[in-house]
């Protein structure tokens, strides 16, 4: 999907191989090759480690959060495989695009599909967190790992379908003429699917989540029903949980890192060509580098926001099968005859218990004497 820097003379089987004196030169030289190679060498092992840790957390806790984050990590790995490894390092840096045009366009479909899956996997996660905070009773009924896996499968299937039209995506580094109507339609479709639409969803739902946590949202579960003990009154602010913190970090990072590339693509469409203007060429190189950085930073965001994830990563690195969980240490079971006593402790009836039985017998004894 990403149109990579034109560091070499472009040439494709079946096309003319002529040098264009108006072609812009790559100002960064070999810096993009070094950058993407380092990003691939760091990003793939980090994402594999993230996937193993999330798999352990998902199988142990049965939380919907880890199902979505695991799918997001898988999409990031596919993005690094198709875009960085195949699209840039093989096609551009190794083969200098001297491959059949059919193969180039086919890989472009996979690149778009992987990118769409990586972005849109975070959308149902955002919706799930919004429902959990604002409608907790409904969330307990509709949110479970099985449904989350079906949602992820649907997102990946739709992402693959959405990548098919981009088979006709124009290589911005080889086409020096003005964009055609088809190019304009594909570019606007691309920026809408990959940035504007998901970012609008993130902005609206995350704003409602923040308002809810700050105590300025509506009442419990939309103001209806009782028994929602984990949903405080609108005036009582709530602490930012690790799930919400992870969500806000992932979505904010995506919106920031992909904003430059979206702006450069639209500028190329309406103002200047990437191929003929070295300034747009430089801006596009840097924007692509920032956008691809998004595929390798989620691991560090998870480590910063989630203590269970840090513990799972440590256990994976230490080759521990099932790590100890401090908050879930086994408690000694009381004898069968003390079942009522244990329930009274949890209900707060412990304090009057020592004074309840001794007093009446003493009074009877004094009256008989």
Annotation, overall tally of beta strands: 0
Q: Strand portion, in percent?
A: under 5%
- End-to-end Cα distance: 98 Å
**Structural class by helix and strand composition:** mainly alpha
Helix content: 55-70%
Number of helices: 14
The run of helices and strands is HHHHHHHHHHHHHH
Overall shape = globular
Radius of gyration: 28 Å
Characterize the biggest β-sheet.
none
Summarize model confidence as the mean pLDDT: 78
| Low-confidence regions | 1-19, 219-235, 326-369
Please tell me about this protein's structure.
With 369 residues, the protein is mainly alpha-helical. It is 65% helix and 0% strand. It has helices spanning 31-61, 64-94, 101-120, 122-134, 136-142, 145-163, 181-213, 242-270, 278-293, 298-305, 307-317, 339-346, 353-356, 359-368.
Secondary structure topology:
Layout: H1 31-61, H2 64-94, H3 101-120, H4 122-134, H5 136-142, H6 145-163, H7 181-213, H8 242-270, H9 278-293, H10 298-305, H11 307-317, H12 339-346, H13 353-356, H14 359-368
Helix pairs in contact: 1-2, 1-9, 1-11, 2-3, 2-4, 2-6, 3-6, 3-7, 4-5, 4-7, 4-8, 7-8, 8-9, 8-10
Summarize the structure.
This protein has 369 residues and is mainly α. It contains 14 helices and no strands. The longest helix is centred in the middle third of the chain and has 33 residues, at 181-213.
């Amino acid at each position: 999907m990403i149109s990579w820097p034109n560091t070499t003379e472009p040439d494709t089987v079946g096309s003319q191989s002529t040098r264009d004196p108006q072609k812009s030169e790559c100002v960064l030289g070999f810096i993009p090759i070094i950058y993407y190679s380092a990003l691939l060498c760091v990003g793939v092992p980090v994402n594999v480690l993230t996937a193993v840790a999330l798999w352990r957390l998902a199988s142990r806790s049965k939380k919907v959060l880890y199902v979505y984050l695991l799918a997001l990590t898988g999409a990031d790995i596919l993005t690094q495989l198709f875009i960085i490894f195949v699209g840039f390092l093989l096609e551009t840096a190794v083969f200098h695009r001297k491959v059949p045009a059919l193969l180039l366009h086919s890989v472009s479909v996979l690149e778009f599909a992987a990118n769409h899956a990586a972005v849109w996997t975070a959308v149902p996660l955002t919706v799930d967190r919004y429902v959990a905070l604002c409608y907790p009773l409904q969330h307990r009924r509709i949110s479970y790992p099985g449904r989350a896996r079906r949602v992820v499968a649907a997102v990946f299937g739709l992402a693959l379908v959405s990548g098919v039209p981009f088979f006709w995506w124009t290589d911005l580094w080889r086409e020096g003429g003005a964009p055609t109507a088809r190019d304009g339609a594909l570019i606007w479709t691309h920026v809408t699917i990959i940035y504007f639409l998901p970012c609008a969803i993130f902005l609206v739902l995350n704003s409602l989540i923040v308002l809810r946590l700050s105590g300025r949202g509506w009442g419990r579960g939309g103001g209806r029903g009782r028994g929602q003990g984990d949903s405080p009154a609108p005036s009582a602010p709530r602490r930012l949980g690790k799930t919400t913190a992870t969500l806000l970090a992932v979505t904010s990072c995506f919106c920031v890192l992909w904003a430059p590339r979206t702006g450069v693509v639209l500028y190329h469409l309406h103002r200047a060509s990437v191929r003929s203007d070295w300034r747009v060429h430089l801006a596009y190189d840097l924007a692509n580098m920032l956008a691809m950085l998004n595929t390798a930073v989620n691991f560090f965001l998870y480590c910063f926001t989630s203590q269970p994830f840090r513990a799972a990563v440590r256990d994976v690195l230490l080759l521990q099968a099932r790590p100890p969980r401090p908050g879930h240490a086994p408690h000694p079971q009381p004898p069968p005859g003390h079942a009522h006593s244990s329930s009274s402790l949890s209900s707060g009836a412990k304090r009057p218990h020592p004074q309840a039985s001794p007093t009446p017998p003493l009074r009877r004894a004094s009256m008989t004497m």
